[in-house]
Structures are given as C-alpha cells and as structure tokens.
Design a protein that fits this description.
This protein is of the alpha+beta class. The chain is built from ten helices and 14 strands. The strands form four sheets. A five-stranded antiparallel β-sheet has the order 4-5-10-6-7. A four-stranded antiparallel β-sheet has the order 11-12-13-14, sandwiched between helices. It is globular, with a radius of gyration of 19 Å.
Length: 274
C-alpha cells in the first residue's frame, strides 16, 4: 500500500512551520526523520493533507551546552547522540540509551524530538528522559512554553501539543558529580521495541531520586520519590511496592508484572553501582 496524496512543504523557520500547521486546521503533520510516520503513511493509518518538513529549521538541530543542562534541538538524531555529539559531562546516560535503540540505519534518521512526539509506549527516549527530569521546549503561535516531559506525553501515541505548536527542543539537567544512573530494557531480540523498561536516577547532590517504568500500555509510570520502590534500610528493589504500583496502573497480568519488576530491579542495581 502507498500513502494517500499529500502536499509537501519544507519550512525554513519555526514561525513558518507554526503558521502552516495553524492554517491546515488539523490536516497537517510534521515530519523529520519519518521512522515512525513513514510506515504509518504507507499503511494509511494517517492521511494528512500536508506534510511539513522541519529538518531545515536551524534551531531544531542546535545543541545548547550550559553548566547545569543541555538542550537538544528536536531534530538532533539518535545517531548524533550515540556518536558523542552531545557534551558528555553528566549526561553519558544519553549515549548509552541511544546506542541500544533499533538499528543504526534507524538511528541515522530518527530524531529525539520525533520519538518524544510519537510517544510510543515501547520506545526508549520517553522513559529515559522522564528519569532524567527533562523538560520539553514548545514553540507556538503565542510564543514558547515549557512542559515536563511526563506531562508532555499524555497517553499512548498522544502528546500535549496544541494547534500550531512544534516541539523545539528538550532540556536535560546534568547529573552532579555524585549522580548515578541505571537503565535496562527487555526485548525479544536486540533492536526491537521493549516489553519492559526501567530507568533510575539517584542524584543526592540535587536531592533527586526518580524511577520510571516504561513500555506500559500508555504513559510511563514516573515515581518522583523512588524511596518507595527501594527496600527499607537497604539496597535492592521493594518488589511488593512495585507490584502494587503496577496494579494501580492496570498492569495486572503475572508475566507482565514480573518483567517490569525484573527490569526495574536491574536498573536500580546499576544506579547503586552493583
């Protein structure tokens, strides 16, 4: 099957992109790497009247390097991150995550912003960035706004972009010198979408201890105070607490719960240096 007919427009500025999106009255879709949108077009799961290519917008490929955080333009590719283009101090975790996503051909084209906007529950970037306290920088007809990534993703394949808005970038705080990070996922084979994802950030200097359960049926489960999922008075995962958390979010099948518990336990061990 091939896509339904559409008009293709290459925007050169953010204001041009937002204007086209507004004028389309919901009939336009933004395209960058097209690693998710391309197959959806071919299967006619989406049939936009206009495709707006944003890869020519300079701001979307920029990387802003500051002492406390790095802001990645939405069109920075996963391969750019894997290859160390992102300043590594305090953010080595990004390179680890990038190198485990799909295959190199996909990483060459796929963008971090595209993955976040697509909001596939089984993809890597959203749960990883939730653990790292990332913030989405959104450009729109009324100016820019910021939204924590766990609020930006509103459900499976759903995000909080309003009409005319474009994800401009993602701001990621740096880990302190004592910050520790763990990330683990379960796949049927390397390169496939995950069955379970666990991410943990333990940064005591910033008073931050977060845990994230990804590859759920919808939004990642974000635990902003992860002391509740760690055993009282010691290292290791509190399996009973995590099981209750999964039950609360509708993950009640035994096999699914065991997968999520095991993956989060490994991420917690990594963050603890085990």
């Amino acid at each position: 099957m091939k896509p339904a007919a559409f008009e293709f427009v290459r925007a050169s500025t953010l204001s041009e992109a937002t204007a086209i999106l507004l004028e389309s009255d919901g009939a336009a879709r933004v395209v960058a790497g097209a690693q998710s949108l391309g197959p959806m077009l071919n299967l006619r799961l989406v049939q936009p009247r206009v495709l707006v290519d944003i890869t020519g917008i300079a701001e979307l490929t920029e990387i802003e390097d500051r002492d406390d955080a790095v802001t990645l333009g939405a069109c920075v590719t996963t391969a750019n991150i894997e290859d160390g283009r992102v300043p590594g101090h305090g953010l080595h975790a990004l390179r680890v995550v990038a190198g485990r996503i799909a295959y190199r051909a996909v990483r060459n084209r796929g963008t971090i912003g595209g993955s976040v906007c697509h909001a596939d529950p089984a993809a890597d970037w959203v749960p990883a960035l939730c653990a790292l306290e990332a913030t989405c920088v959104i450009a729109g007809p009324d100016g820019a706004r910021r939204l924590a990534i766990e609020d930006f993703v509103t459900g499976a394949f759903e995000n909080a972009l309003m009409p005319g808005e474009v994800l401009q970038g993602i701001r990621i705080p740096r880990l302190s010198s004592v910050g520790r990070w763990g990330y683990n996922k379960l796949c049927r084979k390397a390169g496939e979408f995950a069955l379970a994802i666990g991410a943990v950030l333990d940064d005591r200097e910033r008073d931050c201890f977060r845990a994230v359960i990804g590859a759920t049926r919808g939004r990642p489960i974000v635990v902003t105070d992860a002391r509740e999922v760690r055993r009282t008075g010691g290292a290791g995962l509190n399996e009973a607490a995590v099981t209750r958390l999964l039950d609360q979010h509708g993950i009640t099948d035994h096999a699914g719960r065991r997968q999520h518990v095991a993956v989060l336990a490994r991420a917690l061990d990594q963050a603890a240096g085990a």
